Amino acid sequence: MSLTLHINGETHSVDAEEDTPLLWVIRDDLDMTGTKFGCGVAACGSCTVLVDGIATRSCQTYLSDLEDSQVTTIEGIRGPVADAVQQAWRDLDVVQCGYCQSGQILSAVSLLSEVPKPSDADIDAAMAGNVCRCATYRRIRAAIHRAAAKLES
Question: Residues 72, 99: one domain?
Fold first, then answer.
């Protein structure tokens, strides 16, 4: 079945069933490998993308759920919030192994787009579904605060 998806500002026609998880179309059909497979049950956050600006687990988001939605992967994030988050990640050397980082960054972008000056509690709540095996959680929180400060200035 041919379906139309809007990903990273482009329209893609894919041949897939409606119950196919978005993750597999992104990775296997569109060759965008920045979105990672972690657990397959939406518990780790490695597969996070933005759907209409909201952090969403692509392993449990089915193509039938995406009619007229705009999907953004790590390859497609742009703008001041994305730039501030990515710069803060570099400045604070957040990444260790890096496997979870595309999901972490997209969740941070989603948070700062909705809550420009988040508290620690806001950050912890927004990032709770993102697991980091390297345990860089303190650096992630600090980077989100730094990105918020940069956006505020």
Answer: no
